[in-house]
Amino acid sequence: MNKLDRWIDQQNTHETPKPTWKSWTPTLTGWSGTPIVTARYSVHGSTVHFAISVVGTSNSASARITLPTGLTAANIHTNHEWNGACQISTSTNQAAAGKWRIGNNGTYISVDTDWADGSWATTGAKAVKLSGFYEVA
Q: How far apart are CA 69 and CA 61, in angstroms?
C-alpha cells in the first residue's frame, strides 16, 4: 500500500466526534419557590442545541431562563433574535403555544405566553417546555 492509499484509509476510519448532551442549572426569573427544572444542551461547532422544562409557580409577569455559562448567543444583525414555539401551561390555560426568544448577544431565554409577546399572570401555575438552537458568539 502506498502512502496515499494509507492516508485515505486513515481518513475513512476516522469518526467525527458525536456531540455530548450536558445538564446545566439555569437561573430563573419569574418563578417562586423551587421549580422542577430539566435543562440540557449540546454544542456542535458554533451551534448550541437545548431542551428545557420548568414547572412551578409564577411570581412575575415575565419568564427568563439563563443560557449555559459561557455560551452567549451571537450578534447576527440589528433587530435579530433567535426564536421558536414552545409549550406553556398556566392555571387557566393548559398546553397552549408560546414563544421563546434570545436576543443578540443574549445570555438568557425569554418566554412569552403567545406570539404577541403576551405576559404571564403573577400568581398560579407556570410551566414551559421548549427546545431549539442558537449560534454561539
A: 25
